[in-house]
Amino acid sequence: MTGCLALFETPLGRCAIAWTTHGIAGLQLPEADESALRAAVARKHAGFTESTPTPSVTAAISGIGALLSGEPQALAEITLDTDGLPPFHCRVYEEARRILPGHTSTYGELAHTLGKPGGARAVGQALGANPFALIVPCHRVLAAGGRLNGFSAHGGIHTKQRLLEIEGALPRASASLF
After folding, report:
1. Confidence label for 1 from pLDDT (cuts 50, 70 and 90)
2. How far is CA 115 from CA 15, 103, 110, 173, in A?
3. How confident is the model at residue 153 (pLDDT cuts 50, 70, 90)?
4. Ranges of each domain in the chain
5. Residue 131 in contact with residue 26, Cβ under 8 Å?
6. Hey, which residues does 28 pair with through a beta bridge?
7. Rounded distance, CA 64 to CA 166, Å?
8. How high does pLDDT run on average in the chain?
9. Coil, strand or helix at 7
10. Cβ pair 15, 27 in contact under 8 A
11. What's the pLDDT at 177?
């Protein structure tokens, strides 16, 4: 698939966004440096070329920047390009997008909502493969008991904690990161 991408600055650092004519194809959170960011984007979006963002992508970038500045932004208006993603992952992403800034859920709660009681691990795997970080707010999904657990972005669990702090949603059980 061909598409476009752009790098942009946020309060957390430089991010990258990829898009096609169908919507946002991915959002890459900051990496250790720009070289690592570009390498991550190239792996995930081979064949995409750097381009000037369209008005809808510019609006998405603005919303992402506002969220990372501490403004409550649900980012629900952003259209995603989910072509090629497993149907279950799409259902998980759709449900996770319902979690508003400042709120959290658990993998088990999402599984139950999706009609898959006992499917917390499958929900976790889908969120671990989330190409739309922040837009699909996987950082708002916690382990049982409100515990912070794995996060695939650079910085891992500390990045997840920082995102929740920005949103004012740090769980009570956050004293223990693992």
Report:
1. low
2. 34, 21, 9, 27
3. confident
4. 4-68, 87-175
5. yes
6. 16
7. 12
8. 91
9. strand
10. yes
11. 42
Q: CA 102 to CA 153: how far, in whole Å?
A: 20
CA atoms within 13 A on the CB side of 97: 17
In whole angstroms, give the CA distance from residue 20 to residue 16: 14
Residues carrying an active site annotation: 138
Task: Judge whether residue 21 has pLDDT over 80.
Answer: yes
Grouping H, G, I as helix, E, B as strand and the rest as coil, residue 105 is strand
As beta bridge partners, residue 23 has 20
Q: For helices 156-167 and 55-68, what crossing angle results, to 10°?
A: 90
Which residues are 104's β-sheet partners? none
Taking residues 18-37, what's their average pLDDT? 96
H-run or E-run covering 158: helix 156-167
CA separation for the pair 119, 42 (Å, rounded): 32
Helix, strand, coil percentages in the chain from 3-state DSSP, rounded to 5? 40, 15, 40
Q: Determine the CATH number of domain 4-68.
A: 3.30.160.70
Q: What is the mean pLDDT of residues 147-165?
A: 85
Does the domain made of 87-175 have the CATH classification 1.10.10.10? yes
Q: Which of 12, 57, 73, 72 is nearest to 37 (CA)?
A: 12
pTM: 0.90
Q: What distance in Å separates the CA atoms of residue 29 and residue 11, rounded to the nearest whole number?
A: 11
